[in-house]
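Quick question: what would this complex look like in 3D?
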Amino acid sequence: MRYDAAIIGAGADGLAAAIMLARKGLKTVVIERGDHPGGLLSTLEFHPGFRASPYADEIAAVPPRIHWALDLARRGAIFAPAPSSLAVWPNRHHLVSESGSSPAASLLDAFAGVRADIVARVRKQAGRSQGGMFSPARRQPAEPWPGEPWTARSLHALLANALADEDAAAHLAALALCGRSADPFLRGSGLHALAPGSGHSGVVMGGLGRLADALVRGAEDAGAEIRFGLDASDLRLDNGRIAGVALVDGSELETRNAISTLDLKRTFLSLFPWQALPRKLIARVGAFRMAGAAARVLFALKSPPAFTEPELLRGPIHAAPAFSQFAEANLAWRSGGIAGELPVTLRIVSAADPSLAPPGSAVMTATIGAVPFRLFDGAWTKEKRDILRDRAIAAAELVFPGVTGLVIAAEVITPNDMDDALGATEGDVWGGEIAADQMLDLRPWADPGAPRTAIRGLYLAGPSSPLGPIATCAAGVLAAEAVMADFNLAPER
Amino acid sequence: MKTPDTYDALVIGGGVNGLTAAAYLARGGKRTLLVEARETLGGLCETADLGDGGLAPMVAHTLYALDPRVTSELRLTRYGLKFALRDATIALLKDATHHLVLPRDIRAAARNIAACSKADAEAWPRYHSALFALGRSMRALWWEAGGKPAPNRLIEQIARTGTGAWLDSWFESDPLKALLAFDASALSPLDAGSALLLAWRAAQEMCGLQASVAFPAGGPGALSLALAKACEAAAVEIRTSCGVAELVIDGDRNCGARLHTGDLVTAPLVLSSLSRRTTLVELARGAGLGLAEQSAAGDAPEIAAAKVLLALDTIPDGASLSGLLKGRLILAERLENYSAAHADARAGRIPDDLLMEVTFPTIADPSLGSKGRHIASVLVRPVPRDVAGGWEASKTAFAAKVVSRLNSRIPGLVDHVVAIDVLTPDVLHSRYGAEPDTVDVSRMMADWPARVETAIGGLYLCGADADVAPAVSGRPGRIAATLAIAAAGSR
């Protein structure tokens, strides 16, 4: 079977790319290793009658122009204004409402503005150059990257200087570091302000699954083929150009254009025999650092926990965030240990989407940061997974006293499970450690040639690509645009 | 009250940079007064008697950044500056019997590295030339007062890379990386831009050698003595035991200083060799500096270094250390020690695995020892600026930790200690008025006027923290004096 383009992975980026390409009349196939679409957006049943998004509750926003270009709203994916976020300490709390005019809300606005600038700039640059990511010919862009000032600052300095209120600063740090691990005192940690949680995150009415459904229908309507249970084993090269996708079952899809939505390491280190790639490329990709740190605990609750202001249950609730806690947890994480205190963010996801739980009951998720992929003392055994569950329950008790009695079932997802389920190296769903050198040099975000790569015919979308962790769908659209541009130019077709 | 004394220039602080600035100002025709709060000149470059144990380099114990132009232009050699050792080796003490020694000779170093890793031995010559090439291309930026940061992609890249990622990209073996990381340990190896510190070290030229480390004959105090003689020859007036209470500011111009004695000194040029923070926040408190200038002065540092001096009746030789004792010895296991120690220090805890640089100045320079005694000079970095519970309470335990860690590498050492002095960050502050070194990567990339000039006209900074990175270099003194003379001439 011969295709104009093959897309590896049926997550948001892959499906968005498929919509764009199929609409242009290109014969497009999306191959997905699993049996369901959505990737990070998946919603699965974890206990009879109870469903949740196992890997994340929050994604980076879909840039408005892309949202409308993909025609997602008409297919039921509607973005809600970001709900208020609450931080709770033993005897006080702090609330940030993004529609408000507090200094914290303005700061989140500013963060979101920088992300929008990055999206706009990377899009402007793409398609301008025939060079590619990691190709020797790439040039440094003349304009500074919009996030550049953050590369020189610590997250603590960035927040504490802007906000007089210490609780507000710690709260915003929790938004930025939810499900991550970073020492907020280190120079360069300011880049975490790029995190989807810090301002205008993508909240889909009715849950993330709605977005996945809309994307699937969009791709099918446009005429793209989505094939499940197909696992790519190798990208076959012919004269240095992509010639086909070999599958684990031994068959092969013939295509001269492939878009990988896997991360950098998976794409280059596991889809190619190493001797087929330049040594420098292998070394560079090898030096790229992954930083998987998120664990999730999904709770089936008998009934929603009692809370004074039920409206606040629609947003994230951070359990006692503190800068020193993030720093200590990061220290333990770096050496493969579980810190004494872990950052925990709770969400009653059934408050926003009652369909997730049977009538009268509720679903609560806990996102835990600074959880190592590799433990220094061996594998993720049942006992160690229970530690995570207990930490999540302890955090929940702080916010909802008595919630322990409501728990019917709990499901723990470690960074290892994310690696297995999503193909995210070391469970890092953000596609790589957020650090100054990774952003500007190794990734690289500001590359004029992106999303093209050093391999002709291979395009990188997904979390490690320039827009991966800061905008949903954008990396896929960008890759599709590059394929289309190159298609028209390519003389061999 | 007396009528104020009037000078062309006032230099605050009689350390290496203060003395250098004063000498250049006087040579530039300015009637210069230098005031030093302590009884003796030299500041952190001091050789002093360690009670019963002979002469010890109190704070600074090696020179690696002294500007060769200061040496030649101020004729320091004529005033007695000599070097006992011009090019010290560096060695990592892995345990009591295994060491990784890096002599300057590239092939010899590579042979030693091969015992840890063949790949690292192959990478060593490439690393060496890459680092030195980088150092050379940074020279323009750091050498002259008018040096402009030339756009250089590689330097910009290093300025956002951590020491850890940088060393990981070259080498695989823990001992080598742990050894090399010490020179940049004023920052965490995870701090973006800490790799720039390594490149900066490589850019230094001592005794005509790039990136060498030297021991002055007579200890670091000998440098201060030579500089004091150069000041004397240039007719600088020096007052010791004479501290400055505050700067006298008229509008946005500095016009002198009030001394602790109450006397007023007027001078249109004031060069402060105290830290940026002390100068702008404490001495210039009358200037009503805005928030921007205050925050430019930086936050109070949380990371510091401590110094432990041991007098030994002999050095145990069971540890096959002979030949190494002349140079610098590093105690560290792996890169991760540094990031953990930084996190500990920032949280106010003394790190579990102390990272130390040890020198035995009496080996390189026997004139320092007396009665056959030796000095071990130990630089511990990072440590917290303030320990939870106070340094006074932790000092004994800290000293014990340092000695026992040394003893694990040099067995038997503990039995030969006859005297000990611990210079915690508190002591360094109370005895020398010193603040911990602060490294600001953006300031490293800035030009000289941005580091040396202040928002107050006529007030210049010439302390170690006005340098690209804090070190004994004399460069801020030289460049601040040059810029001040030029500005005064053009007014």
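Answer marked as accepted. Chain A has a mean pLDDT of 89.
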